[in-house]
Amino acid sequence: MRKIGEYVKCFCNKCQEQTNHKILCVKYDPKVGDEEYLCEESYQIVKCCGCDNYEFRKEFVDLENDQYNY
């Protein structure tokens, strides 16, 4: 579970490369998954630490298989 103020490395559309981004806002979707399938999904507003560009980021975590999809 990501938290506000945490840093993540993701692709910046303005820099055109992987850069560090600071999470400014997080919204979790409680409707994802069920009792048989454990997963979580969140929507984030992030700010690039290189160019100060703001972007939206979606993160899906498959808790059963320990796999992340951004």
Low-confidence stretches: none
- Strand adjacency order, main sheet: 1-2-3-4-5
The largest β sheet comes out as: 5 strands, antiparallel
Give a count of the beta strands, DSSP E runs of length 2 or more: 5
Structural class: mainly beta
What order do the helices and strands follow? EEEEE
Proportion of beta-strand residues? over 45%
Number of helices: 0
Rg (C-alpha, Å): 13 Å
Please estimate the helix content: under 10%
Overall spatial form: elongated
End-to-end distance = 13 Å
Which secondary structure elements does this structure contain, and how are they paired or packed?
Blueprint: E1 7-12, E2 17-29, E3 39-48, E4 54-62, E5 67-69
Question: How would you sum up this structure, described in words?
Answer:
Helix content is 0%, strand content 59%. The chain is mainly β and 70 residues long. Strands 1-2-3-4-5 form a five-stranded antiparallel sheet, with no helix packed on it. The model has no long low-confidence stretch (mean pLDDT 85).
